[in-house]
Amino acid sequence: MINVLMIEDDAEFAEILSEYLAKYNIKITNYEDPYLGLTAGIKKYDLLILDLTLPGMDGLEVCKEIVAKYDIPIIISSARSDISDKVIGLQIGADDYLPKPYDPKEMYARIQSLIRRYKKSSTLEDQQGASVFLVDEKRHEISFKNEVLSLTPAEYEILSYMIKQNGFSISREQLVYNCKSLKDKGSKSLDVIIGRLRAKIGDDSKSPEYIHSVRGIGYKLVG
């Protein structure tokens, strides 16, 4: 059984979704109060469905707090139509965003997809011992094939983030957002940093082994 935590103040909507997903062995536990949801023992759940318009606390703040403390897949489910809510939600750590209204079948498909993705991610983490990259967060250093790389703050931030997302495509927006020391937030600065990183690890941009360009999305690190 998949155990899902839901923080949603529309009790009727939560009940309808719960009844539908129960047919697929997915159990939803819903909290209308976000403060109760935050203290609900999040570690025991497999996934979180989060509304944004909540009493007393904005859903984006709830998302930010959960991402900082827990490793759990998050689907934002919201009737708010402002595109900035979607962008911010994904930037601060949500994995998916499903605007209301939607067919419960689509939520079921999203849940299945996210659970599979997280299982693959866990497998990749188990294999990290064989990675050619090693991040030392205390020393702010990254080693490549047991050699410490000489990196600028921006290069360190970009590469360390890519290593954490090893094997997954990362959007340009995600990379720029997670690079606090990147003065020029334009895509050209990001391309320059990627070029310097490739040079430092001896990666050929035309036929890369480690840092791959993903058309229409951004980049992916493999290694």
Describe what you observe in this structure:
It is built from 8 helices and 11 strands. The chain is an alpha/beta fold and 223 residues long. A 5-stranded parallel sheet has the order 2-1-3-4-5, with helices on both faces. A 3-stranded antiparallel sheet has the order 6-7-8, with helices on one face. Helix 6 crosses helix 8. The model has no long low-confidence stretch (mean pLDDT 88).
Number of strands: 11
If you compute it from the alpha carbons, what radius of gyration comes out, rounded to the nearest whole angstrom? 19 Å
Structural domains: how many: 2
Classify the fold: give the CATH topology of the largest domain: Rossmann fold
Strand arrangement within the widest β-sheet reads 2-1-3-4-5
Would you list the SSEs in sequence order as H and E?
A: EHEHEHEHEHEEEHEHHEE
Calculate the terminal CA-CA distance, rounded to whole Å.
33 Å
Q: Helicity range of the residues?
A: 40-55%
> What number is the mean pLDDT?
88
Task: Offer a concise description of the structure.
With 223 residues, this protein is an alpha/beta fold. Helices cover 41% and strands 21% of the residues. The protein has two domains: 2-125, 3-Layer(aba) Sandwich (Rossmann fold), CATH 3.40.50; 127-221, Arc Repressor Mutant, subunit A (Orthogonal Bundle), CATH 1.10.10.10.
